[in-house]
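Entry 12.
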Amino acid sequence: MYGIGKAQLFFMIMRTLFLLVVAAMVSVIPLIYSCDKKNNPSNHFLYVIEENGLYGYIDSIGNRQIEPQYLYAQLFTDDRALVVVDTIYSERVDSVSFKIYGENIEKEPCLIARYGYIDTHGKFVISPNLYTSFFIKKEEVGKLNFKLIGWFAKLAFSSKRALCQDSLTWKYGYIDEEGNSVIPAIYESGRPFFQGRAVVLKQTSKSIGPNKMKGQYGIIDVNNKIIAKFEYYNITNYSSGRTIARKWEEIKNEDSQKMLVKNEDGEYDIEQLCLNGGWYDITLMLDRKGNVVDSLDSNRTYFGFSDGICIASNTWLRMINHVDCYEFIDTLGNTIKFMDGISEEQANELFRSGQIFSVVPDDAIIMDCNRFVDGLAGITMNNEVWVFVDKHLLIHGKGMEDTYDFIGTFSNKLAPVKKDGKWGYVNAALRKIIPCKYDSCDVNVGFLGKVYNFQGDSTISMYINRKDSIVWSYCESSGYNNNYDNRYSKKNVTEYGKWVYQEPNNKNTIIYLIVSGAIIVVISFITIIIRRKGK
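Predicted 3D structure (tokens):
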């Protein structure tokens, strides 16, 4: 009796331990997930790195989150990032140019890229079975450097939609976050969605305009509802609830045609447009619903809105003086003049506080500029130094110490600036966060800035934080980019290449499962032995 009771007692103890281990496993799983989630790149901005011709990602402190393994990789948008896994080179006719202009165009070399979309774990959420094709120069065949390509930018996710090409027709449509087709591939070209609107190009049945185009731009929403009719030859991307669209209007009769045109004072004059027929260029500002807000001067080139302000360039002055001259217009179509929207008392207060040191003169010629972000933009007048201005065209800073050789666009509260041939970053208060000591730099993204130093034939690429500490660096020789062959498909260029993606394992999870499994096996084995002895 004593022996049996002892065995039973031992069995009960082991069973209790077994249940405790199981309970611990169940309770630890959420904890492991929680800890993994804290360290997971999905909660952090990921930064693209390139090493030995392959792209991967690091986090804001330089930890490798996704090892370099792709031919090309983009920044994450909507928790998705495009990655290229294979390429081939081919030749084909530019069908868009052929359909739009109706010309007999010869075949040209093109790159066909195979790609998919990954999440911040490096797992494919949309399989790499998508294809896109774009034309390249003959000398780039086999030596293409992806850093020079802006093509993939338009395939990034925005508004939970991504532009996608049909690999048979090469027409464009849109997919959702799961890779499902939500807008059919019926367009000759397209752009990413901005504020729920996308500009797309559609083939038309007849030629339009002096260039006899057979395609016109329109605007759609995320459900493929037409917001603006397909009647424009150019449309800027939506921002600040505005876009600028241009179209041709045909004047068929021989009578003098007249139309209301806004003059410099914002008043409308009747102006003779055309005699003996022809085409007239009409420029319109549209709102989010596609309604006309205002008619604009067609002698200007418009670069789209940002922060409620649009950059405009005078086409006639460019043709006459062979220089670019820029102006700013607001969402009502009015040209911004200095002191617009601010009183003299307010300006004097800004002077006294040391926030501004001058104003843009009425007769100043803005020779170059960048777009407004967070209320500030960089401009240069008469090809002299660059300065920061606000929307009242007041010049910010304390004087010459806040003038630069060049100013870039603000992004994440920092703007790249060039001083005495070197680059750094300033914040919105124009305080130098990163001193001007680098040979080149990119627009700031997330918490890190990407900077470059050149040493002989090598380029040192670095990510730095806002304390000017290097979190990642890589040295690349200049000859590498010129000689690197980025084709995976070398054996048969008539077929797409073979590329097998092996999903990276979570080491912590594997170790946890192995240890847990081993414990269960040991406990089960001991339990069986005890039962046999008890019998």
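Annotation: Residues 16-43, 270-276, 486-510 have pLDDT under 50 and may be disordered. DSSP finds six helices and 36 strands in the chain.
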